[in-house]
């Protein structure tokens, strides 16, 4: 690439193939982000008592929609939010860690994600969706065994340390688990019911009968059943989401103290471990610890009645590791139980094996925390420890012919040292590459004509035996943390080149005056951050214009990245005519303008509740009054039926769903309402901007319901309460 190019291509292999370079135990988020929250995590999901019946209310994009008669004020629904957590690979110490010995594990960039969407209170349902494994199940919240879980003798608090399952609670939950995927084949049913058990046990422990109805949608890039901690990653997501909803977490924020963050991470980790107990029976806890904290960790749990000893290895070196999936399915619970039975039958022998594995882990820890962990001698030492570790695991009976075939191919190639990772019995293996092996593979993949190396030959052999090679384009490793660095960065680079070429005409190239470039971006998120990073790398200033609603954390990130100061609240188009639209029943501004003084409505009776304010601010009234006097502001009031019409007409014409609060704007496009509101015809050269927003929670059935409810409409529109008749030429969005 040319100097200054911002586009970065990173290569990694994973899943049914090879993952190369950089299992660094990389932090999946900054420590301030708790290592698990992706984006901004809402603390929504409060536990207000639902006093409405099913025939009284239904949801419209986060606002309560009631029948036209006897409407009541209501609170908006909590906004949806997403949490995420990484998978892991165990580098040293499998199985011995279950029996009180130490292990080293590191986070990987594959992650699980959980989207939480609050439903209307009238629904009273709990929906768990996990399309990656085909799970989709709904429970009725009042029917769940709350009496058992909230009994004073068994009730658990969010801050409790739970190290074992209460069998009576598990039994009480079973009737609600056996209905999950009851008609699926046994292997699928078992997987679905394990996931449902982990989720429902945590929900019943942390929630209440008054918990808001919600849909929990899980997606994961961590392959299931290959030893990469997929279940722990999911359990951490569930634990985080439920703790956020019960307000046991404050959520990540810039001023969060490290001690508070550590306490919250421990809280997440404890409840994630409970989920792991339901899935695996006797987990060590190392998987959920890595998924919670990110980075790499030295983990040891000597007493399951107490928290484990955890040392976070924030400076874990970037080792050249291949992560290879054998394609052989396995069960962690089965392999753990197998070793447990062996220990019962031969306690002294297995005890010595566990001690030896512990010594390997301690030796590796001393190397990776030493002065030069990336040296050739250190890598060789770590590789030899891997070989010995695998041999000891094989003696415990947890290897597999597919794993041994893989180790044979790697050993024959001479490129590195290989061991199983995770529970074994199939799943994944990791190979620590010898110094220089990884760079030769890069040249082969990049197609620069380099001769085949030992690693290239190994890759060909692996592909021939069914090990597919998958390349990941890791956009989250871009400077700004998103793919937008590519497009924005290339645009900035091209703009700078164009300006440099546009010198004074007729001037000798050596005497050309370079034109300065200042980049501007209008974005409150990743695009703005990408602009700042690109401008800074090119030596140019950048200004980002953000909405006042932008999260403080993002503003701080923009400042920290080098954004310049800008104008706040003073930018606008003076010659613009503003239509202040309200719906009848929420028209406090229109009534105030008509009466010439601020008035207060007795209540909001409009369906479009997000437009509602029983009394507008003095400043709003002052500006609107001045604008009305100058003709730059006009107030218009439409009915709820017209707002609903705007929604379904917009859905028909533009294939876009919007909420009622937006439908009142869109309604201007139809029946000459825009011209009637303006009091004059609209010229073809005029630019009309209609703000379209909302609609994330709107469904086609809701829009169709509005259409059936409202029917044909009176096409008159009122301006400040008075009907006007103005010829209309605007009848559809494309005409505006």
UniProtKB/TrEMBL annotation:
Residues 205-291 form the GHMP kinase N-terminal domain. PROSITE patterns: DEHYDRATASE_SER_THR, GHMP_KINASES_ATP. Its EC number is 2.7.1.36. Its cofactor is pyridoxal 5'-phosphate. InterPro entries: GHMP_kinase_C_dom (IPR013750), GHMP_kinase_C_sf (IPR036554), GHMP_kinase_N_dom (IPR006204), GHMP_knse_ATP-bd_CS (IPR006203), Mev_gal_kin (IPR006205), Ribosomal_Su5_D2-typ_SF (IPR020568), Ribsml_uS5_D2-typ_fold_subgr (IPR014721), Ser/Thr_deHydtase_PyrdxlP-BS (IPR000634). It catalyses: (R)-mevalonate + ATP = (R)-5-phosphomevalonate + ADP + H(+). Pathway: Isoprenoid biosynthesis; isopentenyl diphosphate biosynthesis via mevalonate pathway; isopentenyl diphosphate from (R)-mevalonate: step 1/3. NCBIfam families: mevalon_kin (TIGR00549). Belongs to the GHMP kinase family. Mevalonate kinase subfamily. This is mevalonate kinase. The lineage of its organism: Eukaryota, Fungi, Dikarya, Ascomycota, Pezizomycotina.
């Amino acid at each position: 690439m040319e100097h200054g190019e911002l586009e970065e291509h990173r290569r990694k292999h994973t899943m049914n193939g090879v993952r190369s370079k950089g299992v660094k135990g990389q932090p999946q988020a900054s420590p301030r982000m708790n290592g698990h929250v992706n984006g901004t995590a809402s603390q929504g999901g409060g536990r207000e008592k639902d006093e409405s019946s099913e025939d009284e209310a239904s949801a419209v994009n986060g606002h309560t929609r009631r029948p036209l008669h006897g409407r009541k004020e209501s609170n908006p629904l909590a906004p949806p939010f997403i949490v995420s957590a990484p998978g892991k690979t165990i580098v040293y110490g499998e199985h011995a860690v279950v029996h009180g010995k130490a292990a080293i594990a590191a986070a990987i960039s594959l992650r699980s994600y959980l989207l939480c969407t609050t439903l209307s209170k009238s629904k009273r349902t709990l929906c768990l969706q996990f399309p990656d494994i085909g799970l989709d199940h709904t429970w009725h919240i009042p029917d769940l065994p709350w009496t058992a879980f909230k009994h004073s003798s068994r009730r658990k608090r969010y801050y409790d340390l739970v190290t074992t399952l209460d069998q009576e609670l598990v039994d009480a939950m079973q009737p609600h688990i056996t209905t999950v995927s009851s008609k699926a084949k046994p292997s699928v049913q078992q997987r679905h019911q394990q996931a449902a058990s982990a989720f429902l046990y945590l929900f019943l422990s942390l929630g209440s009968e008054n918990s808001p109805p919600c849909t929990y949608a899980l997606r994961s890039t961590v392959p299931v059943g290959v030893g990469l901690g997929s279940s722990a990653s999911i359990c951490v997501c569930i634990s985080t989401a439920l703790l956020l909803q019960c307000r046991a977490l404050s959520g990540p924020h810039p001023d969060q103290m490290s001690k508070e963050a550590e306490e919250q991470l421990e809280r997440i980790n404890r409840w994630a471990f409970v989920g792991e107990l339901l899935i695996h029976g006797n987990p060590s806890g190392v998987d959920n610890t890595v998924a919670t904290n990110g980075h790499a960790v030295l983990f040891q749990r000597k007493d399951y009645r107490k928290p484990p000893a955890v040392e976070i290895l924030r400076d874990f070196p970037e080792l050249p590791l291949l992560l290879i999936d054998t394609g052989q399915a396995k069960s962690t619970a089965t392999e753990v139980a197998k070793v447990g039975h062996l220990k019962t039958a031969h306690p002294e022998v297995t005890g010595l094996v566990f001690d030896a594995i512990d010594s390997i882990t301690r030796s590796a820890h001393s190397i990776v925390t030493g002065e030069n962990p990336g040296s050739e001698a250190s890598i060789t030492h770590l590789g030899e420890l891997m070989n010995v570790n695998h041999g000891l695991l094989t003696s415990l009976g947890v290897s597999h012919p597919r794993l041994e075939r893989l180790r044979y191919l790697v050993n024959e190639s001479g490129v590195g040292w290989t061991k199983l990772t995770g529970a074994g019995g199939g799943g994944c293996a990791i190979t620590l590459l010898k110094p220089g092996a990884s760079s030769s593979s890069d040249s082969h993949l990049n197609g620069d004509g380099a001769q085949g190396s030992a690693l290239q030959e190994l890759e060909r052999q692996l592909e021939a035996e069914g090990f597919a090679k998958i390349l990941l384009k890791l956009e989250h490793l871009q400077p700004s943390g998103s793919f937008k660095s590519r497009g924005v960065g290339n645009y900035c680079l091209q703009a700078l080149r164009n300006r440099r070429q546009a010198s004074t005409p007729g001037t000798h190239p050596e005497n050309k005056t370079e034109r300065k470039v200042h980049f501007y971006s209008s974005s409150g998120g990743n695009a703005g951050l990408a602009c700042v990073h690109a401008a800074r790398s090119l030596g140019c200033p950048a200004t980002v214009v953000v909405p006042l609603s932008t999260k403080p954390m993002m503003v701080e990130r923009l400042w920290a990245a080098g954004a310049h100061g800008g104008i706040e609240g003073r930018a606008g188009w003076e010659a613009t005519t503003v239509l202040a639209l309200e719906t009848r029943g929420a028209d406090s501004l229109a009534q105030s303008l008509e009466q010439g003084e601020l008035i207060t409505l007795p209540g909001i009776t409009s369906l479009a509740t997000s437009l509602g304010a029983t009394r507008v601010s003095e400043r709003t009234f002052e500006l609107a009054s001045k604008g009305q006097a100058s003709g730059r502001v006009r107030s218009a009031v439409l009915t709820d039926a017209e707002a609903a019409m705007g929604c379904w007409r917009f859905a028909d014409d533009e294939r876009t769903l919007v909420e009622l609060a937006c439908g009142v704007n869109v309604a201007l496009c139809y029946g000459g309402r825009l011209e009637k509101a303006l009091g004059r015809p609209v010229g073809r050269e005029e630019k009309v901007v209609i703000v379209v927003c909302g609609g994330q929670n709107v469904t086609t059935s809701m829009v169709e319901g509005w259409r059936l409810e409202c029917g044909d409409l009176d096409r008159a529109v009122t301006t400040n309460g008075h009907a006007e008749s103005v010829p209309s030429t605007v009848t559809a969005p494309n005409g505006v």
